[in-house]
Amino acid sequence: MQLKRRHDLIPNLVETAKGYMKHEKETLERVIQARNAAVAVQADPTKGPAALGAAENMLTGALRQFFALSESYPDLKANQNMLKLQEELTSTENRIAFSRQHYNDSVRRYNTKLEQVPTNVVKNFGDFPPMEFFELEDAAQREVPKVSF
Asked: What is the domain-level CATH number for residue 38?
C-alpha cells in the first residue's frame, strides 16, 4: 500500500517541477521511467521481493538525483505544492521503511519456525518453502531519501 502511495505521489511531484526545471528533462524522465518500472514489477505476481527491491532501488536513486538537482531552483524550493508533495513523500518513505522492517521480521519468524520441532516435521508433509527477505543491497539506499528545501 505504501509503495503504491509512493508511486502515486511521484507524477505529481514531477509535474510540479516541470515548469521550473525545463532544462532538466532527462532527470525528470528517469524518475518517471524508474517509477513505471517499479509499478510494473509490483503488479507482476511472479516477481519476488528481490525484483521489487531492485526496482525500488532504481526509483530511490532517481529520486535522489531529482532532489539534488531541484536544490538549484530557488523558485521551486519555495513552491507550496512542491513542499507539500515533498512532505508527503518523506512520510511515505518512512512508512515504507517501517513496513519493510515488519515484513522482514515476519519472514525471519516464519523461517525460524520452519526449522523448529514440531513444525519441521509438519513442513515435510506440505509445501512450506522458506520466504525471501526484502533486502536492499546498498547500505546507503536503506536510508530514507533526505528531502530539504
From this structure: 1.20.1440.20
Classify residue 131: in a domain, yes or no: yes
Against a cut of 0.90, is the pTM above it? Answer: no
pLDDT of residue 105: 95
For residue 25, CA distances in Å to 14, 15, 66, 132 come to 10, 11, 11, 37
The distance in angstroms from the start CA to the end CA of the chain is: 27
Is residue 98 domain-resident? yes
User: Which of the pair, 137 or 35, is modelled with greater confidence?
Assistant: 35
| Residue written as grid cell 532544462 | 23
Integer Rg of the chain from CA: 19
pLDDT digits (tens, 9 = 90+) for 104-146: 999 999 999 998 888 888 887 888 888 888 876 655 544 544 4
Nearest to residue 18, comparing CAs of 87, 89, 83, 66?
Answer: 66
Number of domains in the chain: 1
Give the residue numbers spanning the domain of 19.
Answer: 2-142
Sign of CA dihedral 14, 15, 19, 22: positive
The answer as to whether 149 is a domain residue is no
Q: Which residues contact 114 (CB under 8 A, 6 or more apart)?
A: 120, 123, 128, 130
